[in-house]
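Action item from last week, closing it out:
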Amino acid sequence: MCFFFRPKDMGIDLGTANTLIYMSDKGIVLSEPSVIAKNTATKEVIAVGTEAKAMLGKVPEPINVVRPLQDGVISDFDMTAEMLRAFILKALGNAKITNLRVVVGVPSGVTEVEKRAVEDVVHQLGAKEVYVLEEPMAAAIGVGLPVDEPSGCMIVDIGGGTCDIAIIAIGGIVTSTSLRYAGDKFNDAIIQYMRKTYSLLIGEQTAEDLKINIGCALIDYDEDNREIIECMDARGRDLVTGLPKTVRVSNKDMFYALEESVQIVVEGIKSTFERTAPEIAADIVENGIVLSGGGGLLKNLDKIITEKTGMNVVIAENAFEAVALGTGKSLLDIEKLKKYAATKESIKYR
C-alpha cells in the first residue's frame, strides 16, 4: 500500500563521509555513510549506506562500490542521484514524494555549477522547492548560535571532505574559508604514517577506527605530569613480506600522524580571523569559537585551537548532526531562509 505524503519539510546534510536527513515532524531520521554499491552489468543498486560501506574493498566484479562525493562536492552525479534517492525513500518510508520543500547543506566554497548539480539531484526526486544553504550557516543554526544578532559568532564545521570556517553576523556570512582538507585527509595522514613508520598498509576503515578511538590533537598528562598513553591494534598488510600483520599503535602515534593536518585547520582559522573587521573580531574574542562536524570531535582539537589562537573554543553538543539540524530548522522561517540561502533567491521547481 502506498500512502500519499502531505507537504513536509526536509533538511539534508549531503556529506562526503555521511548523509543525514532531518524531517520536520521527526528530527533526524537517517544517518548513513555516503556510499553506494551497484552492479555495473545489470545497473542494479545492490546497497547504500552502512551496508554498502561494509563492502568497500571486498566485492568481486562487476559490483562497484563508490563514494560519489569527494572533497565536499559531487564527483559522480548519477551515483549521487541514485544514492540520495535511496536515502530519501528510506527516510519517507511508504510515503510518496509530493510538494516537498528541501534544504540542502553545501560547503561554503562550492561553485555555482556544483550548487546546480546538488539542486538538480534533489529536483529529480520530485521536490517542489529546493534551497541551498552553506554548511557553516546551517551548522551555526543547528547548534543554536545567534546568527541574526549584530554580535558576530564563529563556527568551524569539520566534515569528511571539507572544513568550513565562517564568521556570521546579522543573518549572513561575513567572512569564510572552505578547506578541502578535513576528516578524509586525516584518515589519509594516518594511512601514510602507518606506511612510513611501521611498513604497514592499512585501509580507510582501519584509519577511521584509529582516528575515532585513539586519535588526538594533543597528548593528555596525568597529575604527575606523565603522558597518558592509550593503545589499539591496527591490522593490515606488511609492505615487506606481503603477509598480514598486527601492530600495536598508541595515541602518541596518532598525535604525530595528525600533527600537520591539525596545523592546517588552525592556520585556516587564523586566516579567516585575520580577514575580519576589527569590530567583529572583538565579538569573536568575547564569544569564542564553536566546533561542529565529526572532525570537530577529534580529541583535544579544541584545546590546541585555544592554545594557538588564545580564544575560547567549545565543542557543540550535537556536533555530528549540526548541519542536518540547521537545514531543517531553517525551514521554520522561509523569509529568513531566503536571506540565509547560498543564493540570493530560493530555487523553486513547479
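Closing note: DSSP finds eleven helices and 21 strands in the chain.
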